[in-house]
Amino acid sequence: MRKRGENGILILAIFFFFIFFGISLNFLKLSQKREYVRTAADSSFITIQAGDSGGTIYDRNFLPLINGEKDIAAVAVPEEIPLEKLTEYAADTAELEKLYSAGKPFAFECTKKGVESQGLTFFEIPRRYSGNVFAPHIIGYISDGKGVSGLEYAYDKLFRKGNIENSVTYFTDGHGHILIGAGKSVVRSTKDRMGVVTTIDSEIQAICEKAGRSLKKGAIVVSEVKNGEILAMASFPEYDMNNLSAAFESEDSPMINRCLYSFSVGSIFKLVTACEGIDEGQNDFMCSCTGSHTLGNLTFGCHNRSGHGIQNMSEAMANSCNPYFITLSQCLDLQKYRSLAYNLGFGREIHLAAGIISSAGVLPSVEELLVPAELANFSFGQGRLTATPLQINQMTCAIANGGELNMLRLIRGITVDGETVGNEKSPLSSRVITEETAAQLRKMMIGAIYNNENSNAAPRYVRAGAKTSTAQTGIYDEKGEELCHGWITGFFPASNPRYAITVLAEHGGYGNDTAAPVFREIIDEMMMRK
Fold this sequence. Notes:
With 530 residues, the protein is of the alpha+beta class. 33% of the residues lie in helices and 23% in strands.
């Protein structure tokens, strides 16, 4: 009996032992689980950035003027991917080995994309400036991460807005080790889709940049007559946005946007003199040119020293006769004459965007024009008068558009998706010339090409109208020869104008020799690509 009782106690003790063991085991598991929760709560994360993206500058058809090409970058976790595998993608193997040996996740440049895994992530990073960037003077450039000029400056906050970039985030344990099993969080920036939509046409801009390379220094502006939208705006010499130091050191000042700078105008201004003459009923004004015109002690010469003889306004325009327009100006109301020039845009800035503002140039006052010599110079675009290629182009648009002047504009609006435009504004327009007067001026400009057997401006595939000029500067070279500006401004097609083109050859000499061939080449190329 006693033995049986002892056996019962032993069995009961063993029973309670197993119950205690089970409770202890569960407690241990619970403790471990709590420790796991605590460790997870105390864990951190690491984020590796793989490159910046910025807003894009688009042309009128949503073709990117920057960010058009892509670079490849990757983020790798060394303990997950062997070095030999990464070497297949690396652009710089020496740099890759250095980063890999540190044993921490890193970003590196690639030559191609590969298959992604938990330890390897690829990104396409927009290259802001590729090797052949259109319109550098419009785009501008960046320094120390900020826009300095052009649209980079005007829309600096928009392009570099926000902090979300291309990156990979991993969770780490308390010792900083990657918890690869916890997955990764990848952010792929879409910032390059948003940006600014310009009025520029990439194809026309390319035509102008190619044609303008014959100009050592100068400018070209092409705009749409009906709405004043700038389709191309090129300044020469161009500069490499990836080699700014060379541009800064150049004697030809390539960083200057010559489309915005004012220059002596020359005979192009005869269009304004003729316009006021027509408005004041002087359509049939006749004058005899003997080769010069004398006012007091001053003699103003004509480029034809033998004189043009008796001529009407159309003949004088085709011959670009200074004495004719000097004589005509003496018959005009000075207040109305100057007001017309102002209404056509002379003496006024043109605002295209923040920091992209054309000079107002110089428009003499009525008091200054009371001086006979000043008025004489003014009548054929010399003296104190200066204007920018933008101003000349805007005036040409008004003539081609039946007297309706549309303010030139460069910006269509903002896009958030690279496909649609928001905040697009209607063109600002005003009537500055009557339709009848504008029609007569267009006829004269057509005659200035086709009634002049020496003209270099006539395109091959379409008729056009234009006026050239050779503007004196008072600046002389080492040989004692004056450095004149060559100009041409005109429109095409002649019968129903759609485009206005202005070309400046700074210190280029005769407009018919330097600017007119560029004008003709641009039109021919545009017509061939229609």
